[in-house]
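re: that complex we talked abt at group meeting.

here r the seqs, copy pasted straight from the sheet so there may be weird spacing, ignore it
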Amino acid sequence: MSKKRKLARGAAVVGAGMSKFDMFADRDSTDLFAEAFGDMAGSVDKGLDTADIDALYIGNFTNDFFVGQSHWGAILADALGIVPRPATRTEGACASSGLAFREAVFAIASGFYDVVLVGGMEDMSKRSTAEVAEGLALAADSYERGVGFTYPGVFGAIANAYFDKYGACRDDLMNITIKSHDNAALNPRAQYNVSIRDIMAKRIEKAKSRGQAVPSWPDEKAFLADPGANPVVASPMHLFDCCPISDGASCLLLVGEEIAKRFTDDPLYVAGIGQGSGRGLQAAEQLTSFEATRHAAQEAYGMAGLVPDDIQFAEVHDCFSIAELIHIEDLGFFKPGQGYKAIAEGRTRLDGSKPINTSGGLKCKGHPVGATGAAQLVEVWHQLRHEAGDRQVNDGNLRVGAAHNLGGTGGTATLTILERR
Amino acid sequence: MSDVVERPFGDYAFQQYLGQEKLMGCRCVNCDTLFVPPRSICRLCHKLNMQWQQMKGTGKLVTYTHITIGPPALAAQGYDRDHPYCCGVVELDEKVRVAARIEAGEVLGSIGFGMAVRVVFLHPADRANGRTVLAFRAI
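got the structure back, here u go
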């Protein structure tokens, strides 16, 4: 794959927004998407007339299973009041809205449309934990699922393979979890916007107020190593290695590059988009790397004319702690087997040389699966425009950020690179 | 032999064979590449010219996990936090990898990387309707 691909017409992001992510007993996908849309519309500096939207691309994994409703393209187009304009749903498991964004870019690049709304949503919390696991496992191949693999199980097996190959251990994964919580504590829209230290303090306080034995953890890692506080889900994945069950929605406004300034004086340009496919766990070339990610990265870097070192910060698909480690190696930020050392050195922290998941990532921001790919780009939008508040990457010359979205056992991956010019 | 030749190279046939305690793959007649589970189109040469091949059923464990929160069907079998089940990936002696249940792997630490394993077939209570699960246990 040496062909350098490019768009026939450039595309730019001129607005981005998301709903709060959480488990909502009384909210559905339509009103969550309305919240995300309102947030996005408010971010368009020169204003958006909804009537100008030519088409909608919406990512959703399996609301069919979660809430017994499919056909979300038309439903959301109606909710927005843009019927009869076209609406298309994309599905690529947890990469569904990564795909929606890419298809929206192609719709612009072809010249057919000028203003496209792209987003994603998922409503997961109305089902039990076991049912959610079953719904998500629909994306696994029938052989993995048939023998009893869940997604925590798949990533547990990948983590054990990584440990065996490179000598990392659970302590290395804890660094990822602690960092995710530290970042999310600075993100008001995150589902768990609380640090591990604050969780510990709250539990100690609770035990005291109830007159129970007061736990004492010398530090965050002691807390994470305590099986009472952090029980195993699928070894070595424990509760705090896993993203939560979430409801939420996200969206972005994508327009032809030459009309971007009609909407804002500070658009973000689509510098590179890549997508790849992969096989299930048993047929994968390696147990510690996703072929789909590597291909997506190659396409995106090739189109952008950039190398991994040019990406100043990134959101990566940390559905599990080990996944973040695998991705930062597959994306070329660190060499295979070196990622966990870079993490231990603090290089992926907010003040490190390559901040990863400044939003708190899927682990803490939340992972309403179909909303995730677009929500990652919402974070890139805030960071590149220096609108990320307390979690702003402290670099006055922030220019290039990326979002990596993964579906299934690496069956689908996208990498999107946005650039501020 | 004739039934072997005629079965399509897909999941149904693979499952039927598991029910008969046979771990079957297929080999590309054109380029000799082996696949388990079976597939119709060769991943390497893309030809549609497969023939069935039975695996010896021995191999080594390349990775594994103990799962404490399983899907509803496994929870119904009594697996839970205190009684995890084990899933893994086995590299067969024929150099092909398969995902499988790992038996006698319930006790944490009782299994490990590179462990030599042999196939076992976990039949459902209702043989006519359920799926036989591919599993391995330590030799």
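couple things i noticed - Helices of chain B lie at 2-6, 11-19, 72-75. The first strand of chain B starts at residue 24 and ends at 28.
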